[in-house]
TrEMBL record:
UniProt key word 4Fe-4S: yes
InterPro entries: UDG_Type-4/5 (IPR051536), Uracil-DNA_glycosylase-like (IPR005122), Uracil-DNA_glycosylase-like_sf (IPR036895)
GO biological process: DNA repair
Organism in which the protein naturally occurs: Halobiforma nitratireducens JCM 10879
The protein's name: Uracil-DNA glycosylase-like domain-containing protein
Amino acid sequence: MKNVTDRTSNPFGLRPPFDRTPDGERAAVFGYGDANADFHVIGDHPGVHGGKRTGVPFTETDAGIAVQNVFRETGFVAGAEDEPDCDDLYYSYLHMCCLPNGHEPTSREYDDLERYFDAELRAINAHILLPVGETAIDHVLRTYTTQRRRFDRDLDVAGLHASEIRGRGFLVVPIRTPDEWESDDRETIVSTVESILERDYRQTKGVATLVG
């Protein structure tokens, strides 16, 4: 049974390689939650999924709170909205650094942070990866599965939402960003997560069992 660390926020002491925020503002929104988790929720960056004020991923914004509430309903999250208690769940972003309001990370900036994201993902060593939104879904499919070539160049994120894709040591469950959810998208991802919980999803890393 793994026991990585009991620290909740930035459990591995990552330090962002650059800071483009004004003086006195938060430089980055680090990974947060149960570092021994089996479920790892992966967002895009703080400007999309929140945390520039709280320092916690998936807070503040409507999209972030909508994701958080999915995992409240499925039993992973309790406590305050801005500082939730996570059990068997870890949150992080592809691009942890905060940018001025209205700015999006460049391709170079995503690349600069990729090694930090990858190191943390492998340290968490979760069984289920749940990327949120097209950028995170595309990255996870390209990097942690051999399945990306099965899909069109432009991902059908609506079609992939709440599906189960076998990866290299992971089960990947894409989540459409809540800003684009349609009438039954929330219920669909809740149902998928509940279904995974009802079966034996665990595996020995490096050995093809549930996930190839």
